[in-house]
Amino acid sequence: MKKALILLTFLSAYIALTAQNQWITYYEASDYLETPRYDETIDYCKRLDTGSNMVTYTTFGVSPQGRDLPLVILDKDGLSSPGEIRNQGRIILLVQCCIHPGESEGKDAMLMLLRDFAIYGEEEHLLDDVSLMVIPVFNVDGHERFGPYNRINQNGPKEMGWRVTAQNYNLNRDFLKADAPEMQDWLKLYNNWLPEFFIDCHTTDGADYQYVITYALETFGNMDPHITEWVNNAYEPEITKQMFDLNFPVFRYVSFRQWHNPKSGLYSHASPPMLSQGYTAIRNRPGLLIETHMLKPYKPRVESTYHMVLETMKILQKEKNILTEAIQKADEFCISGDIARHPLPVKFDTDMSDSVMVEFLGVEYEMFESDITNGVWYKYDSTKPATFTLPMFDKPVISETVNLPKAYIIPVEWTEVIDRIKAHGIDYNVIREDTEYTVESYRFSNPRWSNRPYENHMRLQQYDMEDMTENRVYPAGSILIHTNQQAARAIAHILEPRASDSYLSWGFFNPVFEQKEYSETYVMEPMAKKMLEENPDIKAAFDKRVEENPEWLKNQWGVMNWFYHQTPWGDPKYMVYPVGKIY
Ligand SMILES: [Zn+2]
Fold first, then answer.
1. How remote is the CA of residue 161 from the centroid of ligand 1, in Å?
2. Spatial distance between the Cα atoms of 35 and 144, rounded to a whole number of angstroms
3. CB under 8 Å to 87, separation ≥6 — which residues?
4. How far is the centre of ligand 1, averaged over its atoms, from the C-alpha of 100 (Å)?
5. FRET label pair with 526: which of 233, 331, 379, 576, CA 20 to 30 Å apart?
6. Which of 182, 137, 117 is CA-nearest to residue 43?
7. Which residue blocks in 496-579 are alpha helix, DSSP H?
8. How many whole angstroms from 107 Cα to the centroid of ligand 1?
9. What is the whole-number distance in angstroms between the Cα of residue 103 and the centre of ligand 1?
């Protein structure tokens, strides 16, 4: 009997241990040094789905190399659609991992967090108010370009994925232009769910300091003021305090005025919408960028990521109603069309003449002259923590504003742009027959491009622009985009040339800058002479140009081409924005 009892005790302990063991993640089993491959990650997510009624494993697209884009939804009642979840009074947090697969803390932290909720029942009360969506690996193809040599600056894990997609796109530059198929799938998912809060997990490069984890929040004016106020007054002080209490002091993700040199001063700036938290900001949703520090060991990096997400859930539970209200106000401001009645800022700079002093937890460092180059290099001593009092430049200056029209109209032939508009989930109407509109638009001059591709685009870097009003016939199939909708800010950022990541700046409209017809100089010479004699406006414009730049006359073709553009043969669409604005 006694023997049987001992055996039984042993057996139940063994079963309990095996039950625990089956939920140990790959990362934990590796003594916190390794991160799992794609297949192991998916397998674990599927087991969570089988093992818990609260977890749903699903996919939201397929990568160019044919891998599913995985999504795990954790909801108290096992619900898996935004409508059902919100009907239960819950808000939704989306956590995205491995957009840069070499930066894998998010994935390892989230597999543990999902398990701790769903299998171990830890902190279950948070799920009364918050449901969690996790993308364990976003850049799935890049993730499988796996090896030990993918992040030279980084202290583990042992092997990791590669930064960009199989098509060499950096997904964290692609949120607005949406070139990558993965991003187009993500945008559909995002637009369908519009999660109340978003977290994007990364690992930083750069100088050494004490912080294991830093973060960025868009509070520089690119987001609705109601939500910005909530982030500034409720979320940020709270997360800072809670992380400090957990022994993970946090600081804003900043740049140094002099590269590698914290003592030179700190600055930060508005996030353009090509970046994840910049994009969610213009969709009226707060986004948090997490940047763990690459020189810290992998374990505290994963732990701090875990806590940043968990503590955010605690804040979201407490702040659910206030945040929901701020979001509703922001959406209503767009949907009602009120947004078109105020100037909308679309580009920002940082005021580098106005700073505040802050305490920064740095480490001592020395500068040396390089033995190889003329440069200076830095030796940081992480055993010597030091608190620096430094100037922080973080006051935004609005550098471009626009007045939103009632509607934009895009001609049917600009298919690439129209496809992207659809990917963003922006509402539009297709015009059924050729229609004449009086539109405002822009005429460009003096364009200059970057001299090499960036993210597969030859970006338009400089140009001059003047307003124009004209009657244009837009062909059937052209799309009319009314700005009184939830995505109003995104529409402006895509279509207003001066916005920081506008499609014009990305080069989507480069063909309009190409001259396709021209005159022979011998055809133009007598015509030009006649124009100077008979047209005083042309004569005055010509004289002004010569006076401003006498050298111009040496450029025979250029001068004659200028006259060509003054004739009725000149192309009226040359350097003219095809998109019209209807006020
Ligand atoms: Zn990153």
1. 12
2. 12
3. none
4. 5
5. 576
6. 137
7. 503-506, 521-534, 536-548, 556-566
8. 13
9. 6
Give phi and psi for 372, each to the nearest 5: -105, -40
Cα 176 to ligand 1 centroid, rounded to whole Å: 17
- Summarize pLDDT for 513-560 with one digit per residue, the tens: 999 999 999 999 999 999 999 999 999 999 999 999 999 999 999 999
Q: What is the mean pLDDT of residues 423-442?
A: 98
Ion ligand 1, residues whose Cβ is below 5 A away? 100, 103, 202
Q: What is the dihedral of CA 161, 165, 170, 174, to 10 degrees?
A: -140
Residue 203 Cα, ligand 1 centroid: separation in angstroms?
5
List 409's β-bridge partners, or say none. Answer: 480, 580
Distance, CA 291 to ligand 1 centroid (Å)?
7
Report the distance separating Cα 266 and Cα 367, nearest Å.
18
What's the gap in Å between 478 CA and the centre of ligand 1?
A: 38
Q: Ligand 1 mean position to 225 CA, how many Å?
A: 27
Q: Centre a 10 Å sphere on the Cβ of residue 35 and count the other Cβ atoms it contains.
A: 29
> Ligand 1 centre from 506 Cα, in Å?
21
Torsion angle, alpha carbons of 280, 282, 288, 292, to 10: 90
What was the pLDDT predicted at 450?
Answer: 96
- Which strand (E) or helix (H) includes residue 226? helix 225-230
